[in-house]
Design goal:
Oligomer: single chain
InterPro entries: Palmitoyltrfase_DHHC (IPR001594), PFA4/ZDH16/20/ERF2-like (IPR039859)
GO molecular function: protein-cysteine S-palmitoyltransferase activity
Order of helices and strands: EEHHHEEEEEEHHHH
Number of strands: 8
Catalytic activity: L-cysteinyl-[protein] + hexadecanoyl-CoA = S-hexadecanoyl-L-cysteinyl-[protein] + CoA
EC number: 2.3.1.225
Subcellular location: Membrane
Mean pLDDT: 86
Distance between the termini: 14 Å
Structural class: mainly alpha
Length: 286
Amino acid sequence: MYESLGPRGGEMDPHNKCMGGRMWCVSDICGIICAVMTWLLVTYAEFVVLTVILGTSNHPIYTTFNLLLFNVFAVLALSSHARAMFTDPGAVPKGNATRENIQRMGLREGQVIFKCPKCCSIKPERAHHCSVCQRCIRKMDHHCPWVNNCVGENNQKFFVLFTFYIALLSLHGLFLGIYQFIICVRSEWRECSSFSPPATVVLLLFLIFESLLFAIFTAVMFFTQVNAIWNDETGIEQLKKEQASWEKKSRWRSIQAVFGRFSLTWFSPFTTPPLPTKTHSYMYAV
C-alpha cells in the first residue's frame, strides 16, 4: 500500500470535497440541476408504475414480478448514479508540480514531463484538464452533467452501470406504459386507473415519452463506453483521434482494468473497481 500524499506532502486537497473531505462533490449549478432531475424523473416513473399501472392490476403474479424487477433496476440505477457522482474520478492534486515532487519522480535524461498551466499539476499520461471540475483527471473520458462529475479512471465502472441500468429501467417502463395504455383503450378507460381518464392519459404518455427518450440516450452512451473500454481509448482520445503514445492493453485486460476480474461484482455499484498502481503517491489526491 502506498501512502496518499497531497500536493504538499500529506495535506488533504480540499478542492471539490465536502463532508469534511470524505466525499467528492463538484459545485456546478448546471450539473446539480441535471443530477436532481435524474432522480426526479426516476421518482416520477416509480410513481406512475406503482399507482397507475400496477396499483390497479388484478393479476398478482404479473404485479409482483414487475414490481420487484422495476424496483431492482431503479435501486441499481440510482446507486450507480450516486457512486459515479460522489467518487473522485481520478483528480490530480492541485499544485503538485513542485521541484520536490519532480525530483522524486526520478526522471531519466531526456525524459519529458508535462505541467498543466491551469491547475499547476504534473500532468500524467492520458490525463486531461476539466474546466468544470477545474482539475486534471487521470484517463478522463468526458465530463457528464447528468452525474455532475467527470468520468475517469476511478468511476468509469459506475458510469457504465448507470447507463446500463437506466436503459433497462427505461425499457421496462416503456413496456409497462404501452401495455397499460392498450388495456385502458380496450376497456374504454373504465377501471384501468385510480385517476381520471385525462390524468391517466397524461401520466402514461409522459412515462412512455420519458422511457423512450432515455432508453435511446443511455443505450447509445452504454455502447459508446463499452466500445471505448474495449479499444482502450477514452472519449476524448477518440474525438481528437490521438495517436496512442501509451502501451495499449489487450481488450480483455482493458475491460478488467475498469471492472476487475470477471464475477457478479461487475454488475454491482456497491463494489469498488480495481485501483491503479500508485507509482507516484503524490499524483493521487487524499
